[in-house]
Every structure is written in C-alpha cells, then in structure tokens.
Request: fold
Amino acid sequence: MKYSKLFFLILGIAISFSAGAQEPWSLEDCINYAHSNNLQIKRAVLQADVAGINEKQAVTNILPDLNAGINRNYNFGRSVDPFTNNFITNNSVSDNFQLTSSVSLFNGLQNYNNIKRNQYSTLATITSIEQTKIEITFLISAAYLDILFKKELVNVAENQMAVTSQQVNRTEKLVEAGNVAKGNLLEIKAQLANEKLTLTNAQNALNLSTLNLCQLLDLDSISGFDVFVPDTIDSGFLTSIPSFPVVYNEALTYLPHIKGAQYELKSNEYYLEMQKGARSPQLYLSGSIYTGYSDQRTLTDNNATPFETEIGYLRSNPSQTVVSQMLPSTDYPYSQQLNDNLSERLTIGLQIPILNRWETNNNIAKARIQVEDSKYKLDQVKQELMKDIQQAYSDAVSAKEKFNAAVEAVNSYKEAFVYTEQKFNVGIVNSVEYNIAKNNFTKAESDLLQAKYEYIFSAKILDFYRGIPITL
Reply:
C-alpha cells in the first residue's frame, strides 16, 4: 500500500511537469514563500504577539485602577436604614453608588522589574521567529540544491544515453557491413538498456526531490511546479575557507537563538529581582466616593404650618396627654439624596510583610534556580553552536578537497574514454572495454556533481553562520 501510494505521487508529479504552466521558482522565491506561509512561523508570530501584550500589561500595571459599583437593595421586614441608622419595619428599597481608585506608590520596584522582564521575554520570543525562519531556510535550501543536483544527473544520463544511441546506430551499420561481430552490437544495446534504466531512476529521484520541496513549502497544489536553474553555479566562489574562530565569533553576534538565550537570561534575572521586591514594604494610595438613596427617607418642610401630635402622657396624671408640634414631611428627591449623602475618602497606607508561610522565600529560591538554568542553557547553546560550526568547517574543507579531486578524476576519465572511443571506432578495442571506459567516465561525472553540490552547500552554511544569506 505504501509503495503504491508513493508511485501515484511520483506519477502525479511527472504528469504535472509535462503540463506545467507556471514560472519556475527561484531559491529566493521558495524561501520568501515559506517565511510568509509556513504554519510554524505563523504560530511563532502569534506567541510573539502574546509576549507583546504581556509587555504592555506590565507597563500599564503602574497606572491607578478605577472601579465603579452600583447596588440596589430590597429589604423586607425589620432592618436598619443605612442613612439614618434607625430601625424600620416597612419594606424598603435603597441604592448605593461608589467609585474607588488605588495606586501603588512603592512596592520594592516590582513593577519596574516586571516591565524589564517582559521586555526581554518579548525579545526572546521574537528571536524564536527568526530562528524558525533559519531552520526552514536550511531545509528549503538543501531541498532546492538537491533538485538542481538531480536535474544535472538527469542531464548526464540523457547525454550518455545519446552517445550510446549513436554507437548503437554506428555498430548496426558495421555489423551489416560485416566489419564487426554481432556480439558487439548486443553488448552496446545492453549498455543502452542499462543507461535507459539509469535515466529512469534519475528522473524518479528528481520527482521525489521535487515532491520533498513542495511538501516543505506546504503548497496546496504541486501542478506545474518547477525550480529555476541558474545558468552557471560557480563552485570556486570560495577561494579560501574562513577559519573556525572567525565564523564562530561572527555567529555569536548574528544567530538569533544565541540572542534568544541571552534575552531569556536577562528576563529571568529581572524576575528574580521582582521576587526579591516582595520582601519590601508596600506604600499605596487609595480613594473612594460614595453616595446612596433610600425610599424610607423623607424631607421636613420648614415652610409648612406645624401640627400637634400626641407623643405620651404625664406619669402623675395618665389622663393628661402630652403633645408636640411637628412639621409635615415631603418626599426626599432622588437627586437631592445622592447629593446630600455624598462622602469622599482618601487613604495612604503602608503594608509590611512579616510572615506569609515562607512563600516569598520559596519564590526567590525558584527564581534563582531559573537564572542558573538560563546560564546553563546559554552555555549549552554556545557549545552546540561550536560543535555545529566545527562540523560545518570540517565538511567544507573535505567537500572542497573532494571537489578538486573529482575535477581531476573527470578530466582523466574523459581523456581515457575519448581515447578508448577512438580505438573502438576503428575496431582496436571491443565493446566491453568501451563500456568500461564509458561507465567510468559516467560515474566520475556523477561523483563530480555530488562533490560540487556538497561543496556549495557546506560553503553556504559557513557563510550563513556569518550572516550572509543563502543565494544562488
């Protein structure tokens, strides 16, 4: 099942190539497309957005807060009027309005350290975006160069098959003329059949390499996809390979994951200072405005005529009542109650931490551990970078030597093949010797192509560590 699925994928790519209608993609096109559409990069951008929001929140935490409250109370039966403090037995309705605000004047510089912590945390998150782009750039560049390599292998196979086809035609004429044995023709045809198989395998390998790049780009459709092939790729562009210390020192100042580890360390250092600030006394300022309304309150009408009302009797003569003059009352307007009940309060306070179940000390201890872990992480990242550059430098040196040796091998095998072909054409050597010389020359060309692209890619990696973008 797996192989049949793979076959149809290869077949689909081969068909799409034959009907391709779009312009070939350059390496820069592929990298730019991936940077704009890769889901991993998009998720990293979202994480950076969240970090930016946290940074803004840390800044606004130094501002005063402001809160408003509105309550309506329904009282049934005996209760205390909140404005007169008298007991009432009637059902009542009251409204309360309040506006409160508070600001921290000093809290051990916790707000300041939290702002700095979030600033470096945001920078660390942003560098993770750049690091993700670098990783994807490496993958795409390798896949792109692999396609160019496979294309050249196809060209080599096609050229070799064309030469062999000419020899088949020539040998057929010689056999018909009786100048060579038929066995030579059969051997040349066998060589042609073998080269057709080589070409088919090379084309299949090219299709798979193209599929790999399309999948890295997450293309919705691979129909008509092809890459741009430069006219020439100069393999001698790097006359001298830069030394390891030069590449390493430049990489320390360029690569985002090094900066990210440094930013993370600074963020955790400020977090430690923020936790230490929790030991400090906290000075704060708060204020509030309050007012309310009750339907049980009435307003005495001082301009009205007083009336008498019985308020008791004499103890010496219970039949003698005691009366008092009272003024009539009117409704207490809602807006007037709110104005009359208005009260304001301003408070400045100092809160001194004494004992909080050792929570502050434990938070400080954990923050110190995070700082130490960040230092180890930074050292680990630098060590891994050193190893990667050492490996890349060694690969570049080896690839350059391999390329130079492959160039000499191709020149030698080409001369040998041309000489053998001349002797074969005049009947001095047989087809077996001719095929051996031709196969040696073909293999030397394939080895040269492989060495060429290994050299180009390893050299490009060194350049990239130094901040030089990968281009062709």
User: Anything to note?
Assistant: The radius of gyration is 44 Å. The first strand starts at residue 65 and ends at 75. Residues 1-20 have pLDDT under 50 and may be disordered.
